[in-house]
Fold this sequence. Notes:
Helix content is 45%, strand content 15%. The protein is α/β, with parallel strands linked by helices. Strands 1-7-6-2-5-3-4 form a 7-stranded mixed beta sheet, with helices on both faces. The model has no long low-confidence stretch (mean pLDDT 91).
Amino acid sequence: xxxxIVIVIFLILYLVxxxxxxxxxxxIGKFNPGLKDRSSKALVGWGFRCIIRLAGTDLVVRGxxxxxxxxxxxxxxxxxxxxxxxxxxxxxPRVTGYVAKLEMRKWPLLNLWxxxxxxxxxxxDNIKEGLKTILKGAEEVKNxxxxxxxxxxxxxxVNDSFLPFHDGSFKIAEKGGVPVIPMVxxxxxxxxxxxxxxxxxxxxxxxxxxxxxxxxxxxxxxxNLGNYTSSIISERYFQLKEEFYPPSxxx
Length: 251
């Protein structure tokens, strides 16, 4: 429970003390939007790395060589924990926003930092507004801003399982003309959700898979991108789990 309290205190202090920084970032954005993007990612990334250290998380990141350096991408991954965003942001090599649920827009100060790193807020209950968000996401990736989305649509509450991947999540990459990077996340719930409300030390593995170029896929696969990508992630998930968390260690 102590770690949880420390993390909450740190987050509150970070948000409150960053108010002047948000104003400076706003000014920078008026003259040099690219610099604002990079500095905002660096500042948010620093805060998230502090939270990772406070949580005592041993983060293993692999597959960075699979991320193209000459284009924005759409990261898609399994979603098991509130910590998934905290853990993945620092691993991304370039400015990357998230497609987050609409409710996150109500969080004061946090929502401003989310906007600074190009997060989009998706209304899952309004098809028309949801389509607008997807189209905006396509424009973002066309402009060189990578995005991350969790196609399950919500946090999965069952370990070692996967909710269906929504095909609509891939429209950002399809309409934006960028590759999809499948992202495998293992044991992120071991930080918090598996023993709520306590935060405990845990080893979390994130591995980026080779890019998927949608325009190079066969037509029938393109119609079922959710299942296709989910199968890639789930297959690798269990391979990595056997490698990093063999049954002998859980006894």
